[in-house]
Amino acid sequence: MTRRGAGRLLRLAIAAGLLTYTFWRSDPRQVGLALGHAAWVPLLVAVLLVIADRALMAWRWFLLLRPLERDRLPPFPTILRIFFVSTFVGTFLPGSIGGDGVRAYSLSRHNVPAADAVASVFLDRMLGVLSILVMAVVGLLVGRDLAVDAGVTLLLAITTLACGAAGVLVFSDTIDRFVEAALRPLPWQKARDVAGDLVGAIRRYAAHHRELALVLIGSLAVQFLRTLQAYYLGQAVGVAQPLVTYIAFIPLILLIMLLPITVNGIGTSQAAFVWLFGRVGTPSAESFALSVLFVALGIVGNLPGAFLYASVPLRDGEDRHLVVPKG
């Protein structure tokens, strides 16, 4: 078995272990009752909200592609198709990293330099993470002591360091010299060229403050929509918590779900929901049911990508390049 295959099996094992343990601790019968008696009106509201957040996510990536040279920018329908199909493929890959890789790879097959494609996806991801961090800090301020914990503090600190490193990579004037010195010992010229091109593509965004600001605003709106989705899903299964509790907890849960240790946040999301909502007295069965619906709603939001991949006709062979990279 290859190392890659072993890694996938490990992530599946972690997901299965966390899911099974949390489900068992949450009283399977009560979980089934909560899901079976879910109210349809709040569920429908949550579905409408997930459609809105996917539209916002596609819009913010398009903004990040605008600084590219116009003759290298694919037609807007192609960009939308790449985005939605990659989100669908990412449903079956660890964390959000797999879907991001498919998106960058697919874009690079449409007359876009690979470095520019990776840079756009990297900035999209980091601004998304930054927006979750901002919402988490706001949530903790609003919710006060709801989620103060050593583990939460460590998670926020790691996320802050990652966002800070990305900010330095984009805006620091000395990063070019640092990267050049770091790459110089590499024996492979091609590796030095690829790394140098990627850093240069990321650094190019330092001159596009408007696009970065708009993408960050759009990302904050996406995170708020996700909080509302969880709130309405909670209403559907009878979670008796005010909106402020969701504002405090959902950004933290989203950060945990981003960890590439399981598939699509399965297992980690259940553990996070049960742990955090248990701190405010929510029965574990209701918390577990909410977590299942939250993950399922994300899959529902990715279904347009499956429809596009299966039904949209190919044009001039162009969209045949939208495939999952091998290796």
Blueprint of the fold:
Layout: H1 3-25, H2 28-36, H3 40-65, H4 76-90, H5 97-108, H6 114-143, H7 150-171, H8 175-183, H9 189-203, H10 209-237, H11 243-258, H12 268-278, H13 284-311
Helix pairs in contact: 1-12, 2-13, 3-4, 3-6, 3-10, 3-13, 4-5, 4-13, 5-6, 6-7, 6-9, 6-10, 6-11, 8-9, 10-11, 10-13, 11-12, 12-13
Please describe the biggest sheet, giving its number of strands, its sense, and whether it closes into a barrel. Answer: none
Determine the strand fraction and express it as a percent band: under 5%
N-to-C SSE string, H for helix and E for strand: HHHHHHHHHHHHH
Distance between the termini: 14 Å
Approximate shape: globular
| Radius of gyration from CA coordinates | 21 Å
| Structural class by SSE content | mainly alpha
